[in-house]
Structure formats: structure tokens, C-alpha cells
Write a structure and sequence with these properties.
This protein is mostly helical and 288 residues long. The protein has 12 helices and no strands. The longest helix has 42 residues, at 172-213.
């Protein structure tokens, strides 16, 4: 029993456990919108686009969160501008912009390597998180949760059918910007826990899993948040005993839950689909 409780004996592990759970829950909540909107590639782009912001923030002596957030917004604005002004497909635009931002970040880190740890930016390091970074994560998470609680119905309609949202008098551009701001802020929050490479998994996998388990969007949001929070806590806990990367443990656990839902989901799983096909095949035979 003492072995199971060992992680709770250390302050850095207690901090890592609840911070990972909080960030995982927020990412899981927003992953419902990402899944419904089809913004998986955009989430990947934002997770990579924050890297030059972190590098510039270090060079200018600014908070890393501010630099990452600003860089994510600039990348989103650049993607929107290029998409509006050219006939290039959206996926190609996203690919060009996020690779350009990521390459710029790597270049800055290689030119000014003294105080920047590329491994920490790419893979995260929740165990070494500073108290001021914890405060920033909590502030970002609370702000995101508050916005979603107030505007989730409008964001739902915008994600499902922006044309209908516009006809009903909703400010579609403002909702678009709001969702981008939420994703950018959450990407910054998750950067410390899983790093730039794995943020996209936390913004997609919980929502995709919840999508298989329910047809109601409200339940999907709650399920995504629960899955994200649970896997964040359990992944950080497992990383202590396995002596492995915290981000890797969290994302692997989320993927395992997705695979379980993929097979056993009561309505959309593989087994449910097979039962439905068998029932369809047997129905004509029963009538004859």
C-alpha cells in the first residue's frame, strides 16, 4: 500500500497530479468542439506554432505563456488571411503556416541556445514546473472553463452549422475568434504538461472517444472533460512508477481508452456495428 501512495509524499508529484488533471479536463472539454468542427489539423498547427513564441519570450525576458499565446494567435490569423486571399486548400494553408512557425522556433532556439531547452518545449516537463507557471495554468484553465460555461450553446451551433448560426443573428466571426482564443490558450496551458508535440492528442482524443459513446453534445463535453481529467491524473501517477515521460503516459492512456470505445461503444463501436449488420441480415429471413 505504501508503494501506491509514494507519489503523494512528494510536493512536486502532488502538484503534477492535480495540474495534469486540470489541464487534461480543459483540453478534453474543448476537444468536443475540435471534433465536431473538424479542426484536428488546426489543433496540430497551433500546438507547433507556439514554439517561436516561447523562444522570443525568453529572448525578450517575457513570460513564456505570453509569447506562446501571441504566437498561436499570429499563426491562426496568418492561416485565416492566406485562406481568404488565395484559392489554396485549407489543409495546405495550415500545413504551410504551422511548419513555417515551427521551423522559425527551431531556428531561434538553435541561434540562442543558452537558456532554452528544446526537449522541454517539445516534450514538456511537468515535474519541474515553477509556482508562477502553475498560477498561469490555473488562470488560463479557469478563464477557458468560464467562457465555455457561458457560451457553449452558441459555440455548439457555430461548430455544427455556422450558416444557421449566422441566420439566427449570432456573430459568427466573433465565435470563430473565441474558439481560436480558447484553443490557443489551452495549447499554452498544456505545453508544460505534454509539450508541443503531444498537445494535439489532448485536444482530439478525449473528444473523439466521447463522440463514440454518446450522441448528445452536452454529454460529449462532460465525457471529454472527465476522460481528459482522469487520464491526466492517471498518466502522471503512472509516470512516477514507470519512470517514464508524463506526456507519453497521458496520451498512451487516452489512446487505450479510445480503442476500448472504438470496439465496445454501445452504439458506434465495432461490436455494435456487427450486431446491427447481423440483425439486418436476419430480418428478411425471419419474414420469410
Amino acid at each position: 500500500m505504501s508503494l501506491l501512495l509514494d507519489p503523494f509524499a512528494y510536493e512536486y508529484m502532488r502538484t503534477a497530479l492535480w495540474v495534469c488533471a486540470l489541464v487534461g479536463a480543459v483540453c478534453g472539454l474543448l476537444s468536443g468542439f475540435v471534433t465536431l468542427k473538424g479542426w484536428s489539423l488546426l489543433g496540430d498547427a497551433l500546438s507547433h506554432a507556439v514554439v517561436p513564441g516561447v523562444a522570443l519570450a525568453y529572448l525578450l525576458g517575457l513570460p513564456f505563456a505570453l509569447g506562446a499565446f501571441t504566437s498561436g494567435l499570429l499563426a491562426a490569423a496568418a492561416m485565416s488571411f492566406v485562406k481568404l486571399k488565395t484559392p489554396v486548400r485549407e489543409d495546405a494553408v495550415i500545413g504551410v503556416v504551422f511548419t513555417a512557425f515551427f521551423a522559425l522556433g527551431l531556428l531561434l532556439i538553435s541561434l540562442f541556445p543558452a537558456g532554452l531547452d528544446l526537449k522541454t518545449i517539445i516534450f514538456g516537463n511537468i515535474l519541474a514546473i515553477a509556482p508562477e507557471d502553475v498560477a498561469q495554468l490555473v488562470a488560463i484553465s479557469v478563464a477557458c472553463l468560464a467562457v465555455v460555461a457561458l457560451k457553449w450553446r452558441d459555440l455548439l451551433l457555430f461548430s455544427f452549422d455556422p450558416h444557421q448560426a449566422r441566420m439566427l443573428g449570432l456573430r459568427v466571426r466573433l465565435l470563430h475568434l473565441t474558439l481560436l482564443l480558447l484553443l490557443s490558450a489551452t495549447t499554452v496551458a498544456a505545453l508544460q504538461t505534454v509539450g508541443a508535440l503531444l498537445v494535439v492528442a489532448m485536444l482530439i482524443t478525449p473528444g473523439a472517444t466521447a463522440y463514440l459513446l454518446t450522441d448528445r453534445f452536452g454529454h460529449m463535453l462532460l465525457l471529454g472533460a472527465a476522460i481528459g481529467g482522469f487520464t491526466g491524473f492517471a498518466g502522471a501517477y503512472a509516470s512516477y512508477h514507470l519512470d517514464g515521460a508524463t506526456g507519453g503516459c497521458i496520451v498512451v492512456l487516452q489512446t487505450l481508452l479510445f480503442l476500448v470505445a472504438f470496439v465496445f461503444a454501445p452504439k458506434h463501436g465495432l461490436l455494435a456495428a456487427r450486431r446491427a449488420r447481423l440483425a439486418t441480415c436476419l430480418m428478411p429471413a425471419a419474414k420469410t
